[in-house]
Inverse folding.
């Protein structure tokens, strides 16, 4: 199970308070008495515990304040139900004694899931990359047509207007106009955003669906070379399907270790990883021509938007601001230079998939 109560890193009153909280939450379930608990290593937003009771082992989540809206939670649980009904490896929600799928208690919101024994994603294991791509394609196939109103109001995740807003906020927070070199890079990024806006305006009708929203290694639980559970649907929302494909390609096709030092992303894309992921994804989902043309634009927009947003988390301009913005500009330039390569790789993967099924 891991460290017992006496070995937990929480000391004194904090440890006692945590145990009391978990015992009180379990009073609303029919899971038996608490025997042991430890904080889960996975998860950076919510407070998560692995708890062992007299009836089994469970994963208990206390939601972050910004993720507590009941209507969104119900929509996410409806999504999990839809996936499970189709045989997809989504988690099993444990209901409260009264049959609710989550517990609202004293301003906090809790969820409990059946714990799944698992192994982590291995970036050095090609079979894991293949399984991640196949499973994402399967997820998108199942969710085609699933459109609960509760998951629609969040709005677009990425776009030129959002990128321009982030650039404006960063310029003000870091006072970029007071440093000619930084201001020059900011102007180049503004030009890139304007160019993206013109390309986004040319996108055709893109298919929308409810995306997982956080499809990366820590949320994929493996046994051997197979995914036994895809967890954490807190960021699920109604988006263009290509958004999640772009996010997944950025994550799974990035080199590790990379050459970038100041950004959330390690480096430019690795074409072998990119191609391998895409070839397996399209075995389940064939992107349309409009999606293929939009894919490199979303990759660029995501790269720049997320990089700048993370940098903006620094209230004051850091000493490495110049190097960080230069890396953002390098990502954007690489994306611009490889638009045709992304499109060509996409068509090649689709063509290979179609030929294999004929």
């Amino acid at each position: 199970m891991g460290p017992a109560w006496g070995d937990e890193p929480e000391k004194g009153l904090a440890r006692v308070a945590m145990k009391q909280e978990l015992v009180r939450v379990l009073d609303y379930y029919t899971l038996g008495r608490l025997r042991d608990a430890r904080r889960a290593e996975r998860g950076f937003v919510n407070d998560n515990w692995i708890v062992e009771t007299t009836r089994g082992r469970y994963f208990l989540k206390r939601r972050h304040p910004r993720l507590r809206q009941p209507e969104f939670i119900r929509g996410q649980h409806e999504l999990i139900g839809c996936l499970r009904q189709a045989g997809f490896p989504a988690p099993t929600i444990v209901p409260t004694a009264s049959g609710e799928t989550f517990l609202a208690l004293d301003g906090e919101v809790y969820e409990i899931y059946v714990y799944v024994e698992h192994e982590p994603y291995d970036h050095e294991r090609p079979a894991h990359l293949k399984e991640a791509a196949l499973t994402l394609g399967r997820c998108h196939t199942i969710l085609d047509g699933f459109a609960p109103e509760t998951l629609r109001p969040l709005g677009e995740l990425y776009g030129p207007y959002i990128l321009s807003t982030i650039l404006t906020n960063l310029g003000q927070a870091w006072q970029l106009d007071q440093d000619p070199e930084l201001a020059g890079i900011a102007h180049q990024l503004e030009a890139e955003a304007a160019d993206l806006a013109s390309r986004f305006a040319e996108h055709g009708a893109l298919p929308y669906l409810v995306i997982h929203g956080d499809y990366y290694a820590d949320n994929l639980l493996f046994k051997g070379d197979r995914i036994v559970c895809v967890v954490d649907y807190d960021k699920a929302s109604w988006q263009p399907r290509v958004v999640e494909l772009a996010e997944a390609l950025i994550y799974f096709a990035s080199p590790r270790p990379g050459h970038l030092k100041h950004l959330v992303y390690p480096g430019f894309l690795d074409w072998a990883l990119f191609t391998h992921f895409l070839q397996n994804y399209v075995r389940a989902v064939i992107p349309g021509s409009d999606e293929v043309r939009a894919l490199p634009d979303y990759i660029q927009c995501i790269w720049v938007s997320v990089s700048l947003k993370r940098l903006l988390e620094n209230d004051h301009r850091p000493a490495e601001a110049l190097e960080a913005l230069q890396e953002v500009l390098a990502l954007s330039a690489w994306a611009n230079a490889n638009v045709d390569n992304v499109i060509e790789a996409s068509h090649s993967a689709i063509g290979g998939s179609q030929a294999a099924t004929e």
Residues 243 and 298 are 7 Å apart (CA to CA). DSSP finds ten helices and nine strands in the chain. The mean pLDDT is 93.
